[in-house]
Every structure is written in C-alpha cells, then in structure tokens.
Amino acid sequence: MTQASEAAEQSAAPIEPPSSPLSLAFSRRGRPTPFGAQTRKPPVMVVDAAREAFYSTHFPNSTAEQWTDWRWQIRNRLTSVAQISRVIALSPDELMALSAKGGRLPVAVTPYYLSLFAAQGPQSPLRRTMIPSMAEFTPSECEAADPLGEEDDSPVPGLVHRYPDRALFLATDFCSAYCRYCTRSRRVGKGPSRMPAAHVWEQALAYIARTPAIRDVIVSGGDPLTLSDRAIEHILSRLRAIPHVEVIRLGTKTPMVLPQRITPALVKILKRYHPLWMSVHCTHPDELTPESAQAFARLADAGIPLGSQTVLLSGVNDSPAAMVPLMRGLMKNRVRPYYLYQCDQVRGAGHFRAPLATGVEIIRSLRGHTSGYAVPQLVVDLPGGGGKAPVLPEYLAGVSGDDLVFVNYEGRTFLSRDPATAALMRGHAEA
Ligand SMILES: *Cc1c(COP(=O)(O)O)cnc(C)c1O
C-alpha cells in the first residue's frame, strides 16, 4: 500500500475494535465463546483453526481482535515481494513477475485470503488468481485495456450506462485484493485512496437522478464494500432518495477476500435500503470457509438476495471438479449462482481465458446432475460493448415430423409434440 493510501485509510472514520481482549475467545471449531462479556456485545467473528495458526505464525503478537477487524486486514495486506516471500516460497516465475516494475495491476492480498492458499503450490487455484506470473506481461492478440468498451458507454466518470434501465456505478477503484484477471485493471488500484473525489460521486448521482429510465443501479468498482460504513450509507441513501431507482445492487468480492467486513453494523445499514441485492464474485470452493459462511449468513438473514458471479479461469476453476462443489457450496450458503463469465479479453489475462466450449461442458455437468438453482447462466460479455450474451448447451436436437427431438442430461433422446415449432424449425433449416 502506498503511503498516501495508508494515510487516507487512517484518516477515515475508524471502526471501534471489539471491546477488550478478554471479551471473546474462539473455540477450535470456530464457534465464538463469549466470557466476561456481560456488559457489551462485541461483533463476534469466527476464526477458523487453520487461520488462527496462520496468523499466529506470520503475524506474531497479533490478536484475535485484530484478525477479525477488517481494517486490520486491509492495513496488513501483503503487497510486496518482501512481504509475500516471507509467507510463501515464490517460484522463480512469480518472483520475477512480482519484482517487475510497472505491472499492469498492483498486487495486494489480505492476510485472510492469503492463508487460504499459503500452503499450496504456485499452480494452485487461488494462488494463481492473486500472485502475478510472467504470463501477465505477454499480451496476446485481441486483448485490450478496456475490452468491454466501458469508457465509450460512460456519460460521466465512474458510471457506465449501457442497458436502457440499469447503470453501473463504479464507486471506488480500490479492492482489498486484486484479481490478476481483473476486467477493470485499466483503473483499479491506481488512485491514492479508497474514496474518489467528492465530485465524481456527485456527477454519477446527478446523472442517475436526471435519467428516469434507470430503475436498477449496480454499485461496483473496485469493491464498494471496502468503503467505510459512512461512505456506503451515503451512497445508498442518495440512491434511495431517487424515486425511479427501484433496485440497488452491490457488486463485491468482499465475502470471499475480506469476510470480516460483513459486520453487524454494516448489515444493519444495508438492510435499511431494500430492495438491495448483492452479487458476489466467487472463484473456487477453497473460498468457502466458516468465515465466508458467516458473512453470507449475516447478509442472507438481513433479507439481501445473494447472487454469484464467477469468471471461468483456465487452470483455476475450468472443470466440473471445481465448479460443481463451488455452485453447490454457494447454494448451501443461500447464494444463488447467477453468472459464469468467459474471461474477458483484457490485456495480460490471456493465460486465464478458457474456451467457451469448456464453459458449455461445465454447464452440461451441472444441468440435471444437480439442483437447477445451482446452475449459473454462462455468458460472454461481448468485446466492444455488445453486452452480455448468454450461451446454453443445446438440448433441442432437431425435429421429427410434428415432434421436437430433445437429448436429455443423460444423453437419452425424447420427443415432445409441438407441430407449430417443428414447422418453424423446418422452415429455418430450409432457409
Ligand atoms: C453486467 C452489466 C450490467 C448488469 O447486467 P445484468 O444482466 O442485469 O446483471 C449493467 N451494466 C453493465 C455495463 C454491465 O456490464
């Protein structure tokens, strides 16, 4: 973290850490055991035993109060070769990439998230998404800094208005952890602080207020949940005051990389602005921990409909072995899988881009084999601002007389009588 952002962070309104060191302890199973806490009830956050061991080893003298404090997690993000190599043995390739100056995207990982892959090798899924490799520096054909053409659909800075009835409000360029395949690497992590200049928000809010067609606002970034409670409440209350804004959505990776942020105080704020939806960026079943489960439970208990967005990543989650448990695990946490994206053609992320056909096969491995609620929609966000295009495996195989021919999830053939549609399809086939 730069000195400027460190300063900005410290000057932000502080969140009080949970009362005294004696007021809570953590059992091995991650269940909080309050003692001596008759008076004040601190925001109890679970700490998994594996995490406890990790923090004790790599952050000596730190306390459970600190581990469970999201500001401590942000302040102690690992950002440099020196910091990261103290915790994991870097491969020569990772070492070279981390040492290279002028990388496209800064490096930052919260202690919590690093602990999820610290014991795993350089090719392990979460490690590949966070620790740069030299492949990042070899852009391939068709890659662009702004592959979705968001800047062309941006009427004011920090706002993308592509679809008629919804707008994307990029409220901050800061994330607690930077994904190496970030579609907004052109802007994230560049500024000196989490808060953009006041006039940026004002312009975006004014645009939304004077555009009655916008009924759904997606607050994203960066990660908007890295903002302070006060800043989040400011944005939400301003949006809620606009009569035509029916729905507010938050786009975030916080429950996966910084679950400590989902405090009772934050949740209390969020639930004042219903209907409020949340889309959570999830990558791999290794992210599903007691900590993230607690974050999801708090959000779901507050009545916030939770959806997931996952990027299909080569060597990370591009197999049913990763994706099936991820989607089932999300559903168990009351998160409805929403989108599975093909990785955008963003500069330096070519090594993460899996073929669309792999995505189709993953959807096939889910559909029929597990709960329909656990099947996300596979989409390609079209280069140049075309928007999201859904892609489905084909189950309708053809026509036979007045019947439609279907092949089910097991590969068996079934007929369904539908003369009108059969005639239409024959017409298409002849045309
Ligand atoms: C994805 C996206 C949205 C929201 O799309 P939904 O399909 O409604 O989730 C809105 N604006 C932009 C620019 C987007 O990329």
TrEMBL record:
Leader sequence residues: none
PROSITE patterns registered for this protein in UniProt: RADICAL_SAM
Residues where [4Fe-4S] cluster binds: C175, C179, C182
Recorded GO MF terms: 4 iron, 4 sulfur cluster binding; isomerase activity; metal ion binding
Residue numbers of N6-(pyridoxal phosphate)lysine PTMs: K388
Family affiliation: Belongs to the radical SAM superfamily. KamA family.
Residue span of region Disordered: 1-42
InterPro entries: Aldolase_TIM, LAM_C_dom, Lys_aminomutase/Glu_NH3_mut, rSAM, rSAM_sf
Keyword Chaperone carried by entry: no
Biased composition (Low complexity): 1-14
Domain of life: Bacteria
Protein name as annotated: Lysine 2,3-aminomutase YodO family protein
The protein's required cofactors: [4Fe-4S] cluster; pyridoxal 5'-phosphate
